Amino acid sequence: MEHTKLDGSVTMQANNEGAQDREFWLKSLERLSRPVLEALAEDRLRERMPIESSGSDRALYTHLEAIGRLLCGIAPWLDANHGDSQEQALRAEFRELTTKALEHAFDPTAKDYMNLAKGYQPIVDAAFLCQAILRAPNTLWHEQREQVKTNIIHGIKQTRTRKPYFNNWLLFSGMMETMLYHCGESDWDPMRIDYGIKQHEQWYVGDGVYGDGIHYHADYYNSFVIQPMLLDMVETVGQEYPDWSKRYEVIKGRAQRYAEQLERMISPEGTFPPLGRSIAYRTGAFQLLAQLAWKGQLPESLQPAQVRGALTAVMKRCLDVPNTYDEQGWLRIGLSGHQPSLGEEYISTGSLYLCSTVLLPLALSPEDSYWNGTEPWTSKRLWSGTDSAADHALYP
């Protein structure tokens, strides 16, 4: 890494790079969010959003997927209060659109009233919406009208009639109960939270990685779902029971180790191994790394600026290539462009918006170290011939 010159030129160059990256991130946020938020705010999401899928029943679920997953990623930015006048104007606009979107999503008389009562998929995406509320409690909860809050609570509780699958889905049930606790509902169910936490302890396979159920899967579900939800759950409700609170540092330590692995998976060119199912979630594969950067909880081995550089490179490979969006601006199935064969039958247009979770660090102020300075990420440094510390496993 270059040292700052006496005239400050390197520092200015590094800061300018961070500003350019942030501008790209904001443009990506707007491009992802606007079609979904505008359509749902007008009660026209079902009318406007295409449904690309090889599955036969996705029309029942894809709209809740779109709003739940999108908000899960942009929620912290919605709750922030920084940036220049242009960013603040965009945030104000999107806050207003989000308020209207939530009104329609949970209003039984609206055309876009979301399905939470039929099928199993709503268990998943109600949980992502609940996670979004935890990440932006002011915008997504406290500032909502009382009737909207009542409707949301009613909708979330509808999912209790079905049990989750015996894998990462246990955390979806736990996340919804965590949100109910956070919002002051007296009938929140600690057993659903406890089951998810303790069962995943049984499924821990070592070196910062959990199995997805009783088996290890070579995929990105540790970042799509498992570790972000474990962190948010225990951070929110941990104080209620000593056996939960004492697990927090262990869970965080494992998350930090897995974040190291995620960062090392990003090649000098911004690509990463296309392993496992749901690869069409694109940048959602790096939710955990983005979450720890946003929370200021990165391991000591990772500098905020190097994570920014790595994630920016990934975003450009996944979100800024031809055919990623259709003519109306909706996401299309793929990892880098339009690759419909990458979409399993449960993948549809709405589910693709889990990619927004890479945007969590946008909640950090432009003055934060994340957006200032420049530092090559691990693979870029190593493959350029630069000496670097060796990687080590987490024990036990």
From TrEMBL:
Pfam families in UniProt: DUF2264
PROSITE patterns: PH_DOMAIN (PS50003)
Residue intervals of the PH domain: 1-34
InterPro entries: DUF2264_N (IPR049349), PH_domain (IPR001849), UCP014753 (IPR016624)
UniProt-recorded name of the protein: PH domain-containing protein
Organism the protein comes from: Paenibacillus aquistagni
